Structure prediction request, 187 residues.
Amino acid sequence: MLLLLALLLVVGIAFGFVWFQLTLPVAEQGRGVERAQAIVVFTGSEARIPSALALWRKGVAPRLLVSGVHYRTMGRDLVGKDEAYQIALGRAARNTYENAVETVLWTKAHDIDKIVLVTSDVHIRRSRLYLRCLAPRLEVVPFAVGVVDGRRWRATLKEYAKYLLALAHCKVASLPAAFPTPQALSG
Prediction:
């Protein structure tokens, strides 16, 4: 009986991975995206920030949050001085859950209820899960950025495992009592 349960678990996980792989969002290839109050990008792969900046410069949203920025990153590394006041850097996040915490705190501080979320196509499902878990009323419009093909299989398998853990984590997750709110750029 125990062997049968283990086999069913393995088969369920395998079918879940196939579902996860087949239902990944298609990476946006210059298609239009609906307007929002802000664009949020979870740092990671190198195409995420340039994609978010391009959307912001096209006027998709007046504000931009870059969550999970390295503490040494300066505003001038991303944009010109005249643009900096509309961009916030979240420096505290070290993982997807903390990206979601930064985002929720920032959106609450600025009375934002609709964002465009920019992250990789394999990462967007878990990112949205955490945002929905922490802020169910926040409307999240996904904008998927593709993963380099050479790393796709590995990235998808790794992300599927993290997604399963996030499903369990969301049952108990909540906003922490103390967490730094992202601040607008300066210089």
Notes: The longest strand covers residues 114-120.
